[in-house]
Amino acid sequence: xxxxxxxxxxxxxxxxxxxxxxxxxxxxxxxxxxxxxxxxxxxxxxxxxxxxxxxxxxxxxxxxxxxxxxxxxxxxxxxxxxxxxxxxxxxxxxxxxxxxxxxxxx
Amino acid sequence: xxxxxxxxxxxxxxxxxxxxxxxxxxxxxxxxxxxxxxxxxxxxxxxxxxxxxxxxxxxxxxxxxxxxxxxxxxxxxxxxxxxxxxxxxxxxxxxxxxxxxxxxxxxxxxxxxxxxxxxxxxxxxxxxxxxxxxxxxxxxxxxxxxxxxxxxxxxxxxxxxxxxxxxxxxxxxxxxxxxxxxxxxxxxxxxxxxxxxxxxxxxxxxxxxxxxxxxxxxxxxxxxxxxxxxxxxxxxxxxxxxxxxxxxxxxxxxxxxxxxxxxxxxxxxxxxxxxxxxxxxxxxxxxxxxxxxxxxxxxxxxxxxxxxxxxxxxxxxxxxxxxxxxxxxxxxxxxxxxxxxxxxxxxxxxxxxxxxxxxxxxxxxxxxxxxxxxxxxxxxxxxxxxxxxxxxxxxxxxxxxxxxxxxxxxxxxxxxxxxxxxxxxxxxxxxxxxxxxxxxxxxxxxxxxxxxxxxxxxxxxxxxxxxxxxxxxxxxxxxxxxxxxxxxxxxxxxxxxxxxxxxxxxxxxxxxxxxxxxxxxxxxxxxxxxxxxxxxxxxxxxxxxxxxxxxxxxxxxxxxxxxxxxxxxxxxxxxxxxxxxxxxxxxxxxxxxxxxxxxxxxxxxxxxxxxxxxx
Lengths: 106, 615
What we know:
Strand content of chain B: 15-25%
CATH class of chain A: Alpha Beta
CATH architecture of chain A: 2-Layer Sandwich
Helix content of chain A: 25-40%
CATH topology of the largest domain in chain B: Phosphatase 2c, domain 1
Number of helices of chain B: 17
Number of strands of chain A: 7
Structural class of chain A: alpha/beta
Number of helices of chain A: 3
Oligomer: heterodimer
Strand order of the largest sheet of chain A: 1-2-4-6-7
Number of domains of chain B: 3
Number of domains of chain A: 1
CATH architecture of the largest domain in chain B: 4-Layer Sandwich
């Protein structure tokens, strides 16, 4: 499964993991993952540990998730991004829109 | 013979495509024929009959049955030959043939299959078996027809898509036409993916002769991309023409794109302006790779990385129009490009990267960068497919920009008639910090008095007087900074800082058309509440140094009938004659060396949008 989800133990946030290529093919599954969860969480975490590639449509999907989650920088957190993915997020200055943690950070 | 019960009760499988399935019974023995017909009709099928192969073919053509029950041995023409003919005429999957053979042996079976039969049944047969086979054949036919229909739908859909794509490409191409011929120092390389390149590269001349550019990376290639392109081109060209700064253009693009595009769509873009005197480069970069400035030897001397979120995402109050200002000199090259170039990957999965890009630009500074990069990429890819649009803009900085010949607008055959009007604009400190009054004033003057073709002169006058009043009068800046190597960047940084801190101050524009009898003359008066400045001292400073700044006032004097400072420099009044000349008196093309600080207005964090005159 390219997109998998895991709610946190206390139910306040949902972690979504994208495996492999994060491109336009992921769109429907990703939307289904957060819209079809039955409820809105206060925070969403996107785990890029197993993401090999991200393009501008992926950035677009992150914006959509952010809008769904309440449009603030705290609504979406991105974790475990590899250096190359971090670079993509950096050039687009997405750290101004959402919280971004690199792989080294705990 | 009574129809068997089992057969009768099978009510399923008798319909196809919403109607009763049609059977063709081909049987030379009349008893057998009647038996079969009765069986089939009782089951609910429509039945037609034939007594031999020839009749079978004729009946097939007339009745277009779904299934043919074919006897093997018949006079005149046998079942195998009839089957061959029917199958040849019928399209794939439009009719099934079930052979009813007299003998249950391999030879017959193989002969039937060879002839094109879909199935076989040996006589005498169990009606139940026939029923099952019929149902199966009908199901297969139905399936085939569904596939055909879906294939047709898909084909139609694809054609529609291609048409839309073609339209998008057409729109894109028409819009992206810029006045490149007026800018001989600019080179572009565009490597399209498929037919149309989704990237946008635009260039235009501002009213003061500055060059303004936009390089943008559009996501996708279809109508979404064309929409982005349409908005971007429209906004860019109209605003540059009106004298807006890149900070304001970026803000407006952001607003318009956010309004037009769905969430998730955005435009990564880089806006650049080279000021008319050719010494300053201003950049706004939101989402595009680092823009480079290389000197004449090919060494990287400055770069401007992306500091902003791409256009179309942020709300107006969060948008940041802050620009970077870099010093440039004649011989420098500015390189801006889309990420397709550095992310181009070869068969080994390696990417071209910025290191390689810089190396190839530096290797032979005399060689056009666009050529060098295109060649290097082709070599690097070595046949691997191109997966993204690749665009590169290369601007050669010229010491005395020939591009200052602004795009010629047709001279009206009739000179406008002077009308009586007066315009007063008073700006307090808040307004001075947040608003750029020049495009507004220029628009109003040109619109009311129909002076569009005098736009450059009028803008020059307004801009020079305004920048002197603001910078020397209200902000207390000294032009001397500009004579140092990094001077311009520092000067504008200082200007920004002081402007941001401005709390008191007032500037009043008082512009009127001269009273009737004076001919067509524009009176521009500017009054500022700051410290007066000694114009003579300022002018002397300017003449002494090698002076890229400071000739502005002289230029304005050359264009105006008169220019007078009073009250210690707090008030200035210029009178500009616009009748009686068929060309702007401000003839840039004859200038030999760089012109004065045709005022560079770095308004930095311009937040106010000026809606009405942008259409």
